[in-house]
Design goal:
The protein is mainly alpha-helical. It has a single domain, classed as Dehydroquinate synthase-like, alpha domain (Up-down Bundle). It is built from 6 helices and no strands.
């Protein structure tokens, strides 16, 4: 996973590194479908877990969840952008090359390609308080999963 690489190579504490990628991975997982499913427990299981995370933060939409996560980082004094933490854009290639080789990536509930991971890294690099490139609402079709 990219947060392990960011911690190892750029000395960003592990918890902080995880928090930088969390909104982007949640967003990525929200678009899971039968073709991208990588979890034997099924799509409903993944969607329920995502729904639980949103409810935990009191968020009903993707944007609300991102705002809540961003506010949490701001309130505890953590930066939320890889760029603002001093990484150069060229550093993302090292992170990408290392992360895509990580065996734990196969444990991801959604299949993840190099292109997907690159988009997640780009979003974490440029992260701002707005809806990013994944256009579908985070909780569309998730709020009423029983």
């Amino acid at each position: 996973m990219p947060f392990r690489i960011v911690t190892a190579y750029f000395n960003i504490p592990h918890g902080h590194a995880v928090s930088l990628f969390l909104p982007h991975f949640l967003e990525f997982h929200s678009n899971i479908d039968p073709d991208t499913l990588n979890d034997d427990r099924g799509i409903l299981f993944v969607k329920r877990r995502l729904n639980e995370i949103g409810h935990f933060f009191g968020a009903a939409t993707e944007n609300e969840l991102k705002n809540e996560l961003l506010n949490l980082l701001k309130n505890i004094g953590l930066e939320y952008s890889l760029a603002k933490l001093g990484l150069n854009y060229s550093d993302l290639q090292l992170v990408l090359n290392s992360a895509i080789k990580n065996k734990r990536l196969k444990n991801n509930p959604r299949k993840i390609s190099v292109k997907d991971l690159k988009k997640i890294l780009d979003n974490a690099y440029y992260y701002k308080n707005h809806v990013l490139n994944y256009a579908l609402p985070f909780f569309k079709n998730l709020l009423y999963v029983k």
